[in-house]
Amino acid sequence: MKKVKAIGRNKSRFLASLGTTVVARMALRASAALVLVGSGASFEQSSNAQVTSQRLVDAAKEPQNWLMYSGDYAGHRFSTLDQVNTGNAATLVPKWAYQTMAGGKFETTPLVVDGVLYGTGQDDRAFGLDARSGRPIWQYQRALPADIRPCCGRVNRGLAILGDKVFLGTLDAHVIALDAKTGNVVWDVTSVDYRGGYSITLAPLAIKNLVIIGVSGGEYGIRGFIDAYDAATGERKWRFYTVPGPGEPGHDSWEGESWKIGGAPAWITGTFDLATNTTFWTTGNPSPSNRGEGRAGDNLYSNCLLAIDPDTGKLKWYYQFSKHDEHDYDATQVPVMIDQGEKHLIVHANRNGFFYVIDRTNGKLVSATPFAKVTWSDSQDATGTPVARKDASPTPDGNRVCPGAAGATNWMSPTYDPQTKLFYVTAREQCDIFSTAPQPYEAGHAYYGSAYFPNDDAAPFTGALRALDPETGKLKWELKHLSPTWAGVLSTAGGLVLTGDAEGNFMALDAASGKVLWHFQCGASVYASPMSFAVGGKQYLAVAAGSALFTFALP
Amino acid sequence: MSMPITNFRRVEPSASLWTSFRVMGCTLIISLLVAVTGLIAQDKNPYAGDPKAAKAGESQFRANCAFCHGLGARGGGRGPDLTRAQKRHGNGDADLFRTINEGVPGTAMPPNGATQQGVGMTEEEIWQVISYIRSVQVKAPVQPMGNAAHGKELFYGSASCSTCHMVQGKGGRLGPDLSTTGSARSTSYLVESIREPSRRLAQGISEAMKEFSQEYETVKVETADGQKFMGVVLNEDHFTLQMMDTRENLRLFEKDKLKSFEKTRESLMPAYDQKTLSDKEMQDILAYLLEVGAQ
């Protein structure tokens, strides 16, 4: 089956290359730089969307494409394109914008495959665009029930692609396969009844023949899970509950019946290590987020890094960042795979303010270093894992703790640049006053165990783009933000780092020094992570802001 | 739904095809009327006076509203004190429901579910919150603490408030317009703003998708050609500054073109101590602001 698909793809590529030369086509695939030199070669864009699972594994060989949420299975969000670089970034100009005309946060990272851009918008919109012009080829919007109440905006972060389908997780907890050429619904399955407080906001991850998703709903007392669906049929192949049931390991980390409403959502896209056949996923807070009373124990697998066998859904190992969390410190940040010589690691800048380095072969902690202001922990256990202070718990009248509930960072993607060997992350400097109060659980209703408030500090909240050395966790440079931002980060082979800010700027920085080389005012705060692609021999940078997807290129 | 049909047929028993269509049409109208009546019925809180609903409403309030309106609904630097009987955008059950559900355009009050704090509420939960607000609301309307007429004299006279503040179109531009402040902020916040204006700077422009509002920070700049300006920050980003100088001129800059740029959180507003403004005089000014704010 796999072989047939591969042939189909090669055939399509052959057809696509008609009208140009095979040499140019080969050069196109050989390196990023050559793609751009052989600019005439790719003017005729293939509309055949046969993306085999092998192409996903070999994503780095197709620098002109962006085949998954983080760009590659390692979660680097690094583009090997270098046409736009430190020498010419100052001359970047807008090329086109696509308007969803939808309100709320626009969080998508688009995919680009062979000249077609696939994105999502608010309220479960999806679209396929001509990546050169921004003109829509198809548009889809799910008819959502009136009574969905997603916790944090009617958002979606993107699609996965496999074969000739793109995959969308919806706010009413469906998983939908759309035909990549038409946007037609190929299959539509219910992962779970949304009325229990479940939704899906993440971009799915395609591995082999599977589409893997996780659910949101940590604010509603859900029981979190990660699912894998057969990409061809939508049949569910496995489910991993992120809160273990009776008889399962970890079940005793919950008090009484609290596991049934234990939360631990998995709402950010995972990564995949082909060498060990392991997919890495991260989980969010135990429910209720602000109240530990009634759920005594570590509350596994909330706020964890999970190593899962993608074929079976079986857990290989886990590492828990924040045990028995009472501050909403979801660990839902992309688990980034990096290699240092013989060391195979996961690096993870966590919402709780620590930068963790973990051995991805066994889940053992290598180091944990603060990358932002932290007051919730001042000691480590025997493994080096930061431990919560007793007096950091929320109180009835409120207790000031750093970082605040939105975290020292959040779901916005970091990037790892293999050229500078630096890890870049958006840091938020905001402390909050955490309060707690008893709250009865009611299915589908918000279940926080109280709330948090901005603190009374005179100084305003700020933020920064921070470049960290993953070897040491030390800060290499930072770009201060005037206020905390929700923009993610992209790095490129052109020596650039790209990010946005809450004031609406999209910026290109020198990855080595942090110097701002170029900026564009998008007119609304950036709530998305940028990406890059090439079409027609031209490298584009893309970011969502407001209700528009913007692209930029050299003049 | 079947009742109106029966009634209608009793009045007009003819059963021609044409009449059938008319019957269907009228049924639609009647259905609409029923729907409208239903809405009108919902203009009263179905849980009014129910202590259990107020308790449930308190949980919702903490999760969805307290970020701006404070614990106990007593207000803060961001949102009004809701324990007051008067509410700027209406105090009837239907008014409160509308304010919570739809937000208040042009203010920081967002529609239900769009706060980014909390998850949004069902209709039932909004009514519970209204029950909670009623349960903490002071029974009598706030009595004027001072003499509003004298407060107005002070505002436009010896206290010099109007040098920088506008009320109903009259006054200066350097500070926030105070026409609605009396209803939009708690009294304790207003007192603090007069006595210690630098403690919590007043908030300026709120942008739709930006989490935090601009504040009335003080700024001093020197341009490349040596001109110096001092004033308040109207807005700012990494690259640009929009300010009003003390002569009420708008000054718009690219930061990298400036010779110097210095910002402080020491408010341009002088701190009014007891000697400058006695407690009695301050109460008069607050009475004036409350009176204007209620209009």
Please give a structural write-up:
The complex is a heterodimer of chains A (555) and B (295). Chain A is mainly beta and 555 residues long. Chain A has a single domain (89-553), classed as Quinoprotein alcohol dehydrogenase-like superfamily (Methanol Dehydrogenase, Chain A), CATH 2.140.10. Chain A is built from 4 helices and 38 strands. A 5-stranded mixed β-sheet of chain A has the order 1-32-33-34-35, with no helix packed on it. The two termini of chain A are 44 Å apart. Residues 1-47 of chain A have low confidence and may be disordered. With 295 residues, chain B is of the alpha+beta class. Chain B has helices spanning 2-11, 17-41, 51-64, 66-69, 93-102, 123-136, 148-156, 181-184, 187-195, 279-293; strands at residues 166-167, 170-171, 218-223, 228-236, 240-245, 250-254, 258-264. In chain B, a hairpin with a 3-residue loop joins β4 (228-236) and β5. Chain B is globular. Chain A binds chain B through residues 104-105, 147, 149-153, 219-220, 397-398, 435, 437, 439, 445-446, 448, 450-454, 456, 458-461, 481-484, 501-505, 507, 516, 519, 521, 524-525, 527, 546, and chain B through 58-60, 62-64, 66-67, 70-71, 78, 113-114, 116-122, 125, 198-200, 207-212, 215, 236-239, 265.
Mean pLDDT of chain A: 91
Structural class of chain A: mainly beta
Shape, principal axes of CA atoms of chain B = globular
The largest interface is: A-B, 45 and 36 residues
Give the spatial strand order of the biggest sheet of chain B.
6-5-4-3-7
Helix percentage of chain B: 25-40%
CATH superfamily of the largest domain in chain B: Cytochrome c-like domain
Mean pLDDT of chain B: 82
Kindly provide the name of the CATH class of chain A: Mainly Beta
Quaternary structure:
heterodimer
The CATH topology assignment of the largest domain in chain B is Cytochrome Bc1 Complex, Chain D, domain 2
What is the count of distinct domains of chain A?
1
What is the ordering of alpha helices and beta strands of chain B? HHHHHHHEEHHEEEEEH
Describe the biggest sheet of chain B?
5 strands, antiparallel
Say how many strands of chain B there are. Answer: 7
Could you tell me the CATH topology label of chain A.
Methanol Dehydrogenase, Chain A
